[in-house]
Amino acid sequence: MEPVSSPLTTHVLDTASGLPAQGLCLHLSRLEDHGQQWTELRKSYTDPDGRCPGLLLPGQMKAGTYKLTFDTEGYWKKRGQDSFYPYVEVVFTITNETHKFHVPLLLSPWSYTTYRGS
Prior knowledge:
This protein is mainly β. It is built from one helix and eight strands, in the order E-E-E-E-E-H-E-E-E. Helices cover 6% and strands 44% of the residues. A hairpin with a 2-residue loop joins strand 7 (101-108) and strand 8 (111-114).
């Protein structure tokens, strides 16, 4: 049986090494209570390819504001590297829960960038 595809995915690339960022801890949260409280939906780690499949199950996503928090300090410390950003928070809005969303993160010890992928 083929695994069910998640409507929300991420992919982290370590631009300092040119390799996927394996083992990076991340948290997915959704803004609840009329914009007053973040509720953690999932804690996970990137796989050997730097991906984190299955952040949400099909049917679990609803319109709203979400946040991916990446523990960049922990990632760099495991590699014996200082870094400028202890964590990266990517906040985004989902307006159509029938679409798929991909949130890549390009990461170095001194910078990061993100965008809506496909």
